[in-house]
């Protein structure tokens, strides 16, 4: 078997969360002995651990593992990175796209690492604003580029399914450091991502 996708869960934590989910489902008025729900508390416990695995991952280590000395000093853009996260106020998903740009300062980073650090921060309980800052600061502090820019566009289930029930609204957040604080550079980036 050349490839094995391993998902490992801490047995005790899984058991703890499972018992709590069982209580929650019962409190909501359901019968946890019903066929379709028998394994639901355990599945939900594992799903939540999967969706919050970012707490156990180190984004700095991911970036430094693939930094290469390079003299290229034009804008590097990775756009339309898929985002799936959980809002910390309601523990409901928010999802959308992340666009990242940086201007190297002697070092470039393996392009696949940018989506990976998005996941590390997204797989925690989040607010979109902090997520934007964390991605920005992580790249800025680790890669020390001439500039970095992050734009996130996301739909929040807590807005779509409950509360104001605004189903087509998209929340945009952005952050800019270094060269991107200059209007021309920022505009070039925004144009290149189609904004
Ligand atoms: Zn929310």
Q: What features would you highlight for this structure?
A:
two-stranded antiparallel ribbon; GTP Cyclohydrolase I, Chain A, domain 1; one-carbon metabolism; GTP Cyclohydrolase I, domain 2; five-stranded mixed β-sheet; 7 helices; 38% helix; 195 residues; binds zinc ion; globular; alpha+beta; 2 domains
Describe this protein's structure:
The protein is an alpha+beta fold and 195 residues long. The chain has two domains: 11-53, GTP Cyclohydrolase I, Chain A, domain 1; 58-193, GTP Cyclohydrolase I, domain 2 (2-Layer Sandwich), CATH 3.30.1130. Helix content is 38%, strand content 25%. The strands form two sheets. The chain has a five-stranded mixed beta sheet with strand order 5-2-3-6-7, with helices on both faces. A two-stranded antiparallel ribbon has the order 1-4. A hairpin with a 5-residue loop joins strand 2 and strand 3. The longest helix is centred in the N-terminal third of the chain and has 17 residues, at 11-27. The protein is globular. The protein starts with 10 loop residues before the first helix and ends with a helix. 25% of the residues are buried. Zinc ion binds next to loops. Homopolymer. Pathway: Cofactor biosynthesis; 7,8-dihydroneopterin triphosphate biosynthesis; 7,8-dihydroneopterin triphosphate from GTP: step 1/1. GO terms for molecular function: GTP binding; GTP cyclohydrolase I activity; zinc ion binding.
């Amino acid at each position: 078997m050349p490839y094995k996708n391993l998902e490992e869960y801490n047995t005790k934590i899984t058991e703890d969360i499972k018992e709590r989910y069982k209580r929650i489902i019962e409190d909501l008025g359901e019968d946890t002995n019903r066929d379709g729900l028998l394994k639901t508390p355990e599945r939900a416990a594992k799903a939540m651990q999967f969706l919050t695995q970012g707490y156990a991952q180190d984004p700095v280590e991911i970036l430094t593992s693939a930094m290469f000395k390079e003299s290229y000093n034009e804008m590097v853009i990775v756009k339309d990175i898929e985002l799936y996260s959980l809002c910390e106020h309601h523990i409901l998903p928010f999802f959308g796209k992340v666009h990242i740009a940086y201007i190297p300062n002697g070092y470039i980073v393996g392009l696949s690492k940018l989506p990976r650090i998005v996941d590390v921060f997204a797989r925690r309980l989040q607010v979109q604003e902090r997520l934007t800052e964390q991605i920005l600061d992580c790249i800025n502090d680790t890669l020390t580029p001439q500039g970095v820019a992050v734009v996130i566009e996301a739909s929040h289930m807590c807005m779509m399914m409950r509360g104001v029930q605004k189903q087509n609204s998209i929340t945009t957040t952005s952050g800019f450091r270094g060269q991107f604080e200059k209007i021309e550079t920022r505009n070039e980036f925004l144009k290149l991502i189609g904004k």
